[in-house]
Amino acid sequence: MSKFDFSPMPDANGYFGEYGGQQIPPELKAVMDEINQAYEEIRQMPEFKQELADLFADYVGRPSPIFYARRLSEKLGGARIYLKREDLNHTGAHKINHCLGEALLAKYMGKTKVIAETGAGQHGVALATACALVGIPCEIHMGQVDIEKEHPNVVKMKILGCDLIPVTRGTATLKDAVDSAFDEYLKDPQNFIYAIGSVVGPHPFPKMVRDFQSIIGTEARRQFQEREGKLPDYVTACVGGGSNAMGMFTAFLEDDNVGLVGVEPAGLGLDTQKHSATMSLGHPGELHGMKCYVLEQADGTPMPVHSIASGLDYPGVGPQHSYLKDLGRVQYASATDQECLDAFMTLSRVEGIIPALESSHAVAWAMRTAPTLSRDQTILINLSGRGDKDSDYVAEKLGL
């Protein structure tokens, strides 16, 4: 029996404690409520569940394996490190898990276009893939800064047939891409559906994305017990909006003896303005239709944020993460750009696994923490994506 109470989460109004909800105009609330009702009905349909399960197995390649990083563990000393290999999924990251769910939901609801934002491009590639599979037009909004950083994913999205919209407003990064995509969605919310790329936004999206991503933790919990005969001592994942972390953490929430650690971007340092450390330095506020922790400027507007990882440079975070922080169930740490780069190169050269820069934040925390633990302790990292998309950028940055 856990000392924490997690049910129901969210409540009927979409709140996780005081976070979440629908901070949106009344006319949009009706649309969100319709999506919630359709989701709750469709997700119970045997044909929907079977189609999604078949695609997870035969299209994505699930279950993704867990891998004992023996050489990395021996190099660091201390705790033994395991990786949940979401980087081996079709399209190269965890994003395909909820994108297939959202694209199928759109098909079952009879929607005519799927709209989304993307940061690092992984959500964009995964959604373009899923929409090509089910035959629904797809429109992806991406910040111009991220387009220049993530060229391989930009090319993939175009090959897959999506309509890619460059966003030059504001900082031309993820937050601005969300704003742009939402503006387009509002033009015809009856026929369009906004496939949010993380556990953020108005209810029911934080719940929906979490549910589709929870397969990560469900698999990992079973796999780890089969491998080790016990649960891991620590489970860690990077946190931007927080979908891969919530997908992993959900299965372990009631296991009080398992430490859960979300790792967010410290960027150039928490003492600078160049970071995305929402949980470390943010405060409760409102953003993109939800109440959550937010990094704000003095005038109350979202702070321009920074991370070497395009998928993490977001000034908010999922409402369930915000609740779990206040509850004390999840510890939120951070890693700098330099720590992230070091982890990226170390995992690549010690284990032959090139991780996404996003995932490298969690690897950095594990590298920092493992030497402080004993050999009989274990750390399970959700390796949320592979680093193909980041290789040219890292090579240029490090002069390789």
TrEMBL record:
Cofactors required: pyridoxal 5'-phosphate
Residues recorded as bearing N6-(pyridoxal phosphate)lysine in the entry: K95
Catalytic activity of the protein: (1S,2R)-1-C-(indol-3-yl)glycerol 3-phosphate + L-serine = D-glyceraldehyde 3-phosphate + L-tryptophan + H2O
A molecular function GO annotation: tryptophan synthase activity
Superkingdom of origin organism: Bacteria
Pathway note: Amino-acid biosynthesis; L-tryptophan biosynthesis; L-tryptophan from chorismate: step 5/5
Domain Tryptophan synthase beta chain-like PALP: 61-385
InterPro entries the record matches: Trp_synth_b_CS, Trp_synth_beta, Trp_synth_beta/beta-like, TrpB-like_PALP
Assembly and interaction partners: Tetramer of two alpha and two beta chains.
Function: The beta subunit is responsible for the synthesis of L-tryptophan from indole and L-serine.
Protein name: Tryptophan synthase beta chain
Organism, as annotated: Marinobacterium weihaiense
